[in-house]
TrEMBL record:
Its main location: mitochondrion. Residues 95-115 are annotated as: Disordered. It is found in: Mitochondrion. Keywords: Disulfide bond, Mitochondrion. This is Cytochrome c oxidase assembly factor 6. Signal peptide: none annotated. It comes from the Eukaryota. Pfam families: COX6B (PF02297).
Length: 115
């Protein structure tokens, strides 16, 4: 009976088990903390997947992150991080605070000027 359980566990990838996922998440969080801590202080010199740029100080953490997580997960987490940064950058600018112009107030079926 124990041999069947051992066979079942040995056929499972380590990274999908809870301990593997937790190790991946910790490595991911450590890498992104490093990237956030350095934001704007140095010029990012390293390129990750999906065009993510990061400083060379985070290179060791990036290697650990890529080692502990599946490549598809790394790409997914990188995309999430970039999307959050892009959204935050858009919300932090004054783009949303501009008044609506008269051209934007028109509705479908109505001409500007109310006719």
């Amino acid at each position: 009976m124990a041999s069947l359980q051992e066979k079942a566990v040995s056929g499972v990838e380590k990274d999908v088990l809870a301990s593997g996922r937790n190790a991946c998440y910790k490595a991911r969080d450590a890498f992104f903390r490093c990237v956030e801590a350095d934001a704007g202080h140095t010029t990012p010199t390293e390129v990750a997947s999906v065009g993510l740029l990061y400083p060379s100080q985070c290179k060791i953490l990036r290697a650990n992150y890529e080692q502990l997580c599946r490549s598809t997960w790394v790409k997914h987490f990188d995309r999430q991080f970039c999307a959050r940064k892009r959204t935050k950058r858009l919300l932090d600018t004054d783009i949303g605070a501009r008044p609506i112009s008269p051209q934007q107030k028109t509705t479908i079926g109505l001409q500007p000027g109310g006719k």
